Amino acid sequence: MARGAHTAQQYHVLAGYFRAQQQKFEREAQSEKQEWDRRSQNTSGLAQKYPRPVDSSKNRFEYFSYQLTT
């Protein structure tokens, strides 16, 4: 779609798509950050298996944050 855009209307559609993607990743990152904070409060014991739920939330937050920068 990006390679075939030649008119202002096509670029407008592309801009809308990328704006929607950015908003989606921002919402997902914010949601995962809240879940990460919540899970961080419930860590206990040194014998927990990896990946812990808090690690999964952290990784998802970092993924969505990375997607915002690319």
Task: Provide a quick synopsis of the model.
The protein has 70 residues and is mainly alpha-helical. It is built from two helices and no strands. Helix 1 (8-40) packs antiparallel against helix 2 (53-69).
The total count of helices amounts to 2
Strand % is under 5%
What number is the mean pLDDT?
A: 86
Shape: elongated
Question: What is the number of strand segments?
Answer: 0
Q: What oligomeric state best describes the polypeptide chains here? A: single chain
Decide which structural class fits the backbone: mainly alpha
Strand/helix succession: HH
The biggest sheet, with number of strands, parallel, antiparallel or mixed sense and barrel status, is: none
Work out the radius of gyration: 18 Å
Helix content: over 70%
- Which regions contain 5 or more consecutive residues with pLDDT less than 50? none
Terminus-to-terminus distance: 18 Å
